[in-house]
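Notes, p. 3: input format for complexes.
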Amino acid sequence: MLVVMRPDASAADIDYVVRRAGSLGLKAHLTRQHDQTVIGLMGDVRGLPVDALAGLHGVDRVQPVTHPFRLASRDARPGPTVVAVRDRMVGGEAIAVIAGPCSVETRERLLDVAVRLKAAGATMLRGGAYKPRTSPYSFQGIGESGLELLVEARDLTGLPIVTEVIAPEHVPLVCRHTDVLQIGQRNMQNFALLNAVGESGMPVLLKRGMMSTIEELLLSAEYVLAHGNEQVMLCERGIRTFETYTRNTLDINAVPLLKQLTHLPIIVDPSHATGKAGLVRAVSRAAVAAGADGLIVEVHPDPDHAWSDGFQSITPEEFGGLLDDVRRVAAAVGRRA
Ligand code: PEP
Ligand code: MN
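Output follows (337 residues plus phosphoenolpyruvate):
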């Protein structure tokens, strides 16, 4: 059960609800959602005097929790969450298009692609400095120097940075450089990492694990939200199925379904979802048509020589074409890009 307090509720009002919950044998878990305090009541809520609680001073409403996730649910917040990344808003009318290489490679390549992405109209720049790879023999990312190159690219173009953090102990360092902390699909259930990014208060892009359900994704988001960090974007990046012609299978159902279940913005990654550069443009159109709030696309100036994921990376020129399509589809569904 959730007790949603009014924005003008006093500390004494909140304290009174917590004490009432205690007297009913329930544990209260407090979080701030925008300007409201939400009190989650844990324990046996059967027979709870809902009307009496709803009538307490400062209480906006008492809501049953119909899903195992609470703070991410539309029950907790009916309207959409808009995540602010510097001056870019994600989850509002505008479709956010995050683009850049899979990995940060050389200074020249990163600055080159960043300038071209900015000119094409990208919203943010992506690039991994720390790469979680299936094989320990694969390129693991250039590390801290990659973060510095991303900052240089941001200074040059004004594009906010999205980069992955792979370990809780790296969170302070990555936070000092980036604007969005990406949690990769392999780490979706790394709970120590989720707690650390929750505590950081930074915007988070949480990717769905390739073998995770939608409910598990939302429960992972819950870890971040439980720290009072509301700046969470979810990312559908394809799941593992029996199909082998594509790298993953984009779960397009997840997009409208997540829009129903949660107030958090939904981003689609057509690059990892397909694993094929030639499919990225069409799948981007589909994602926007299905209601995605944004895309994260791998773009490389020379895909054949990329240090990771070149086969699914499009060129800056192809990215321009993709954006043209995205703008048209966005207009058709009442959005803009
Ligand atoms: C990436 O974005 O480059 C990446 C590693 O993605 P995922 O975690 O979805 O595999
Ligand atoms: Mn990649």
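The pocket of phosphoenolpyruvate (ligand 1) is lined by residues 102, 128, 184-186, 207, 237, 269, 272 (CB under 6 Å).
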